[in-house]
Each structure stands twice: as C-alpha cells, then as structure tokens.
Amino acid sequence: MKNDFSFIYQYIVNPKTVGAILPSSRYLSNKMIKEINFKDAKYIVEYGPGTGVFTEKILALRNQSTIVVLIENNREFYYLLKKKFWNEKNFIVIHGSAEHVQHYLNEYKIPYADYIISGLPFASLPQNVSNKILSSTLNVLKTGGEFVTFQYTKVKIPLLKKYFSKITLKREYRNIPPAYILRCEPREKNKETLDAI
What we know:
- It is a single chain.
- With about 200 residues, the chain is α/β, with parallel strands linked by helices.
- The chain has a single domain, classed as Rossmann fold (3-Layer(aba) Sandwich), CATH 3.40.50.
- It has 9 helices and 7 strands.
C-alpha cells in the first residue's frame, strides 16, 4: 500500500514520465514476463521499473547467475528500488535514462541484453527521446533477443515498427487502465538504417 501511495504521488508530480496512476497489476506483470527464457537468459534489463512490480517476478524466476539491470529515471523510485532489493546478488540499479543503456552496460562490462522489459510511457515521451531509446535498445539486444513493453494505446505501434521486424500484441484488461503487451523482435542490425531513423 505504501508503494501505491508513492506511485500516485509520483504520477501527480511527474505525469509524463510515470504514465499511470497505479502500479501494474499482477496479471499484466505475469503476461510481461511469460515468454522470457529464464533458463538461458544471462542479462535482463528493465526500463522504468517504478516500484519494482515486474522486477520482483523477474528476480524470483531468474537463475541466480543472471544479471538484472534496472534503469530508473525517477529519483524517488530509484531510492525505493535500492532499498527494496538491497540484498540481491547480480543486480544493478541505475539512476538514469534508458537513452544511455549502451553506456551503462559498457560501464558494467555487460556485452548485451537477452531481454529488455520496459515500463516507459512512449505515448507521453518526446519523439526524439523515444527514438534514442529504441535505437539504443537495438544496439544492445543480442541476436534473437526481445524487447517487451506495455502501452495503454496503439498510437506508438507505427514507431515501434520502424525498429522491430515482428511485433506480437496481447491485451490485458485486468489492469488500471487496461494495457497492450507488445513483444518486439528487432530488425537485423544495420548502422546505416539506424542512423537514418
């Protein structure tokens, strides 16, 4: 309940970056991580984890050797996550923007991401920021990796299609508000193509 109040407050003061008035439901969380191959995944990155609803499930199901990296731009959520998961091993919480994911992974000598799970509200982010985040995401995802996000509308699907060759869409009504889950497989990496976007 305390986390819910924290989330509501952060939504009121930062509506464009928090994106929702309540944390994601367990139903949405389950669908977001359902297809992750926890047995083989070595590196999992999460953008905008908020109060850590998805993070809890990822940590519960991962191999202990799997490195989990959280990138949280909201300072209050960052400190909450640091406190909440202080005793986790192979676990990194970064206060920063997902635009710089490649820099952060390089800093920690992490060669790639198997999966990137995102709670970022692309519909309310500036277009140039969204482009930088998605371009950087492609650069760090390994071949065969997946970017999994949820959105409350379909308005940003055309943007995602510029970066990902296959997008699988599912709906979860048991969330406030109801959400779309998008599983995105990247196009073949091509520097010229990325620079042109």
